[in-house]
Design brief:
Layout (H helix, E strand, L loop, with lengths): L14 H4 L8 E2 L11 H11 L11 H11 L8 E4 L2 H12 L5 E4 L5 H9 L3 E4 L11 H7 L4 E7 L11 H10 L5 E5 L14 H6 L4 E6 L12 E4 L2 H8 L9 H12 L1 H24 L11 E5 L6 H10 L2 E2 L1 E2 L6 E5 L3 H18 L1
Parallel strand pairs: 1-10, 3-4, 3-5, 5-6, 6-7
Antiparallel strand pairs: 2-8, 7-8, 9-12, 11-12
Helix pairs in contact: 2-10, 3-10, 4-5, 6-7, 11-13
Length: 362
């Protein structure tokens, strides 16, 4: 069955799976991938490791955790870190260690869809406290009011997926100060490198202070290693040790570990990625607003905008893919689109496709 037989474009598909829906080559701006590809240093390290693919990798991630501690500095220790096969598996390990079936977790929609999916598969009850206002602000009082004796986890993403919006230290401090001791904050910070125009909270300070927080990071976005599936968490030592017990032996492959460690040293690739994102995020946001779209303020590597009146996100994504551009409907928001920031020509192609669609209805 082709994708057109299945009802058109669906979020999460590859370029090959939707190419039949367009007469022109597809530009993929739907998965927040690095438009410049992987770090060249990471590719070289993975290629070198591949020659030993007949040998099992190291049983633990001790070398990677040591490298992460050195990279982050600020008196962080290897014992503060644990790795996983993607940021999503970081979330899963946190849940395996810190929450049980029948207990409760709080999420703040619109937010990453994997939170709900993972929690519900594990028999956890999910309570929702929506972000509020036009800028999707965190409702601290609402979160604290939703806490019950059975609540164990609270999830926040900063910058947030899918909105791109962000919050400062005062929000994080207020939440950590207000949450009771039986609750851990899952602080998803996988887009933190892209926040160049706003000071995000210093979450590592709370780790060093032993607060109930687990920070989630990934090599998929800024480092361009989505296909390698390497993520990591940062937590106070007792929490990190508890989570680490849930990992499988040989949970990362040799190529992924080698690539991740090398990527941390590739400052040139990271700088190029972030510089392009900062410039193009501003250009794309301004151009979308000039075309009449309502655009949320973003500090991530994507922008979110509202569909024209009378149109839903599924319809617009289907129309855009026929013009050769893949975006995706925003999580929890049926009338909003999330578009990854690509290279300049890719972003221009998105703008031209939207202009063509506007012209077609005039």
């Amino acid at each position: 069955m082709t994708q057109s037989d299945a009802g058109g474009y669906q979020a999460g598909l590859s370029v090959a799976e939707v190419q039949s829906l367009s007469d022109t080559p597809i530009t993929k701006l739907s998965s927040n991938e690095n438009p410049y590809g992987p770090s060249p240093m990471a590719v070289a390290a993975a290629h070198m490791a591949l020659s030993g693919a007949n040998i099992y990798p190291e049983r633990t991630d001790a070398a990677l955790c040591q490298k992460l501690a050195e990279f982050h500095g600020q008196n962080m220790q290897p014992e503060h870190f644990f790795s996983a096969n993607s940021g999503v598996e970081v979330l899963s390990l946190i849940e395996d260690a810190l929450i049980a079936p029948g207990q409760r977790a709080i999420i703040c929609p619109p937010c990453f869809g994997a939170y709900t999916g993972s929690l519900m598969k594990k028999g956890v009850h999910v309570d929702k406290v929506d972000l509020v206002g036009a800028d999707f602000e965190v409702h601290v009082e609402g979160i604290l009011a939703a806490v019950t004796p059975d609540t164990r986890l609270v999830y926040l993403c900063n910058p947030n997926n899918p909105t791109g919006t962000y919050f400062g230290a005062e929000v994080l401090d207020a939440l950590l100060d207000g949450l009771p001791d039986h609750i851990t904050l899952v602080y998803d910070e996988v887009y933190f490198q892209f926040a160049t125009e706003f000071d995000l909270p210093d979450a590592l300070r709370h780790v060093r202070d032993g607060r109930n927080i687990v920070i989630v990071h990934s090599f998929s976005k800024a480092y361009g290693l989505a296909g390698m599936r390497v993520g990591y968490g940062i937590a106070p030592e007792p929490i990190a040790a508890q989570i680490r017990k849930r990992k499988r032996s040989f949970h990362l492959n040799s190529m992924g570990m080698a690539a991740a460690m090398a990527a941390l040293d590739d400052a040139a690739h990271l700088d190029r990625t972030v510089a392009n994102n900062t410039t193009e995020r501003a250009r794309l946001s301004q151009a979308l607003r000039g075309m009449g779209y309502e655009v949320s303020p973003s500090q991530a590597n994507f922008v979110m905008f509202r569909c024209p009146d009378g149109m839903d996100a599924k319809t617009l994504t289907n129309q855009l893919v026929t013009h050769g551009v893949m975006v995706r409907p925003a999580f929890d928001l049926p009338h909003h689109i999330r578009a990854t920031i690509g290279q300049p020509d890719e972003n221009t192609r998105l703008l031209n496709a939207l202009k063509s669609l506007q012209d077609e209805v005039q």
